[in-house]
Each structure stands twice: as C-alpha cells, then as structure tokens.
Design a protein that fits this description.
22 helices, single chain, 484 residues, Serine Threonine Protein Phosphatase 5, Tetratricopeptide repeat, mainly alpha, two-stranded antiparallel sheet
C-alpha cells in the first residue's frame, strides 16, 4: 500500500495548497489564459488538480433530479404542479423528458467540462518535474475521470469517450462509444488509481482520492457489470484492511453528515463544500428546505426540491435512527404552529447566505462498501456470510438484526438488502441506480404512480413508464453539433 509521499506534502505546504480553502481555487479554460502560460510548473499542476476536484460540484448540483427525483424516493412538491417554472422537474418526475431537457444538458455539459480539465492535466504531465508528484496527479486524474464516466454510462449508456483534449473540429467527428468500451476505459483508469494513490493523506489534505476510495469505486463498477466474484475480492480488501469504519453508537448515522465531523472515518470520498461566501458553498440545504417557510427552517427560504415520497416515509420503522437524520415531517412555523410539510434534512446546516452551506456530499461511504460486499457474497452463494454485513447496518440504525431463519432465499436476501440500501442512502443519489441494476424501475415507478395519493390528484395525467426512458437521451444541442 502506497503511503503519502512526505516530499510531496512538504511541497504542497510550501505552496499553501494543503488546506480546505483549496477548493476555492478555480482554473480558467486554457483557451482563455494561453497555451503557453500555464502547466509549466509543478505548482500550476497542483492548482489545476484542485480545480478538477472543485469541478465535481457543478454536475452534482443537478444529479438529484436525474436520480432521486426519477426514483420512488422523492417527488414534486404539491405546489410545483401548476407553475411552468417546474416543467423540467415535472418531466423528470413523470419520466416524460426529451433530449431538449435543461437539467440533462447541464449535467452533461458540466461533466464533460470537468473531464476536459482532467484530460488537460494528463496530456501535460510531461511538464511535471517531481516524479512522485507526477504519479500522484496521474492517479488522482484517473480516479476522477473514472468517476465521471461511471456516472455518464449509467445515466446515458453510450456516450462520447474523450480521453484527450480535442478541438472543435475533432468534436464534430466523434462517435459514441459502446458501453463495453466505456466500462473497459473506467477499469483501466481505476487500475492506475488503485495502484498509485496513497492509502491516506495528512489530515489537512483530506478530501483527495485515496487507494481505498478507488478500490471501493472499482467494487461498485464490478457490481454494475455483475462481475460479483471480482467485486467480492476488492470489496473484501476495503472491508478488512482500510482504515474506514461505520461510525458507532446511536448518533453514529447523524454524525456522518455533521458539519463539524467532515471527512470522518466513514467517508471514503466526498464532494467538498466550504461556506463563507467563497462561491463553493453547498446548495442542497436551501434546495431541499420547504418553500415559503421563510427563515423558520433556513435563512433564504427553500425550494422544496426532492420532496420525500410518502412511500419512502412509510418504510422507516418508528425506531429507525436514520429517519430524523434524513428527513423531517414538517417544521415549526409562525406562533409555534407545526406545519406538516416533509422535506429532506440530511444536508441541512445553518447558512448566512442562501445556497452556501458547509455540508460535504458523500459519494462513497463505508456503509455502501459493507452493503455492496453483502450483495456480492449473496450473489456468489454465500448468503449466510452476507447476513453479518447487512446486520451491521441494521444494528447501527437501531433495528433488530436478522436471523438466518428470517431469510427465505437468496432472492429474499436481495429484497431485504435493497430496502436497507434505500433507507441508508436516502437522498444520496443511489436509489435510481439500484432500481436499474435489478431491473425494477418500471415495476416500482408504476406502483408509485398508482399508490401515491399525490399522483392520483395530478392534473397532467400519469402514463406507465416506458423502457426507453431508463436511459437519458443525449442532449439535442450536442447531437446537433456532432452531426454537423
């Protein structure tokens, strides 16, 4: 296992680039600053890499709408059904979107912009003088690029596979790559990342990708490909040998998301935010707070995006410690009156400025590793062994653990596992991918449309989910460019 190079640490400290404020750095497009005026010194490359981490924020700002809102975890708020402002969200909620959709385009554009930043670093690595720094930058860039393409291929299927900087003319000549090609590209990038990233960093450098984060992401990729024997091996390594843990105790779950406990031992990788008017604060506390709640919930009011579905709320048992950390059933308003209006509270923190919260957004948690490992064990015929890891999640949540006699079959274990994943990762953009992986989207959403009272009162009409909506369409404006 590689250790963080002390020489690199000293170098970064000397640059003043080892604090959480690094994320405020951004990098102008190379076309704006001139090809020859940047990527000349090692400090240029460190600054550029910070910009790549910073670039994770933009696509994440729209990801909830493409994942949670399309799943059975959340829906439109009742007040958002009549205004034209919310048409894009309605189309995602009802699975009626087209290739002209704004959220889809923004996610696509923001992701490829950051891939371009990453590719630029990789293309220019020959200019890095320190060999150890060069290896680290290549590994970090490979991890971030694999992360982006993993999201793209799961959301869109076949996409453009861009592995170097390209000109506008070259862009018009590209063809989409097959999913097989994209997944192989992801695996190749993760091979570099797992081999060359350090297992840990100095505390002041928290937030950079580690080899354990790369291995966990590799396990998720293998799971997505149904390569469960390989998933079991790599996830077992993370479970047994990484420094990561489930935060213990009755407050363990809530402590995962506490702003005074960022990058704690349960977090393998997160998109980081910093409050304070730096332009890198998190938007989700305001996005998800109740609309027209004034300052009773959060300064600057809320948008009430991602309203928890009644079905999700009903799945939390009364003694599940995760519920109050994930959502609230309402808030205390004027004159101390309770306003029943469910909203997502998982990413809440006090803000001085709207959409400027401190909360990091977890991408890979140790809880995810444990449940993915349990899934792999079950799929590999080791259900009795898998039960231990499912029960570790339930025990922390304050729930009764399962006995072997409670599991009727491997399929029954999968059903219980998916419910646990739904509750554990509510509003962390995981549910959609789980439904797709187990071919449950159409059945689940059709049931939600039929049973959720909100949809029965919908004035736009509800249609059964069409299979061609399981993948997002390539944005039309991008298709037009590539067809020139």
């Amino acid at each position: 296992m590689k250790k963080f190079n002390k020489h690199i640490a000293a170098f970064l400290i000397s640059l003043g680039l080892l604090t959480s404020c690094d994320l405020s750095l951004d990098l102008q497009p190379i076309s704006e600053i001139g090809e020859g005026s940047f990527y000349q010194t090692d400090s240029d490359f460190v600054t550029a890499m910070v910009a790549c981490y910073n670039g994770l924020q933009a696509p994440l700002a729209n990801e909830w709408a493409l994942t949670e809102l399309r799943s059975d975890n959340s829906r439109l708020h009742n007040s958002q059904t009549s205004s034209n402002i919310y048409i894009p969200l309605r189309e995602l909620d009802l699975m009626t979107f087209t290739s002209e959709h704004l959220y889809i385009y923004n996610y696509w554009s923001d992701t490829y912009q950051n891939i371009s930043r990453i590719n630029t670093i990789l293309d220019k690595l020959e200019n890095v003088q320190d060999p150890a720094l060069k290896d680290l930058l290549q590994a970090e860039a490979s991890f971030l690029r694999a992360y982006h393409y993993f999201n793209l291929v799961r959301l869109f299927g076949e996409v453009f596979l861009v592995d170097t900087r390209i000109s506008a003319q070259q862009a018009t000549e590209m063809q989409v790559a097959s999913t097989e090609e994209i997944f192989q590209f992801i695996l190749d990038d993760l091979a570099i990342a797992t081999a060359n990233l350090p297992g840990s960093y100095p505390e002041s450098y928290n937030g950079r990708a580690t080899s354990w984060a790369a291995k966990a992401l590799l396990g998720k990729v293998y799971r997505n490909l149904n390569r469960y024997p390989e998933a079991e091996l790599v996830l077992a390594d993370v479970v047994n040998n990484s420094p990561n843990i489930l935060l213990p105790g009755n407050s363990g779950y809530s402590n995962v998301f506490a702003t005074d406990n960022e990058m704690n031992a349960e977090i393998l990788f997160a998109v980081r935010y910093k409050a304070g008017g730096l332009g890198i604060g998190g938007p989700f506390a305001n996005y998800f707070a109740p609309q027209n709640s004034g300052s009773y919930v959060i300064n600057g009011d809320g948008n009430h995006f991602n309203r928890p579905s009644d079905d999700l709320i009903s799945q939390f048992s009364e003694n599940d410690l995760r519920m109050n950390s994930s959502l609230q059933l309402g808030y205390t308003g004027a004159e101390g009156a309770f306003v029943p209006d469910p909203y997502v509270s998982k990413f809440y923190s006090d803000v001085a400025i709207s959409q400027d919260a401190e909360n990091d957004f977890p991408i890979i948690r140790f809880a995810d590793v444990l449940l993915l490992y349990a899934e792999a064990l079950n799929e590999n015929g080791k259900t009795s062994m898998a039960l231990e890891y499912l029960n570790r999640i339930r025990e922390r949540a304050g729930l009764e653990t399962y006995e072997a006699s409670d599991i009727a079959s491997s399929e029954d274990f999968t059903t219980k596992l998916l419910l646990e994943r739904r509750l554990e990762f509510a509003f962390e953009n995981q549910r959609w991918y789980d439904l797709v992986h187990f071919n449950l989207v159409e059945q689940t959403l059709d049931t939600q449309f039929e049973n959720e009272v909100f949809y029965s009162e919908y004035t736009f009409g509800i249609s059964p989910v069409q299979s061609d909506k399981l993948l997002l369409p390539l944005p039309q404006r991008e298709v037009d460019i590539f067809n020139q």
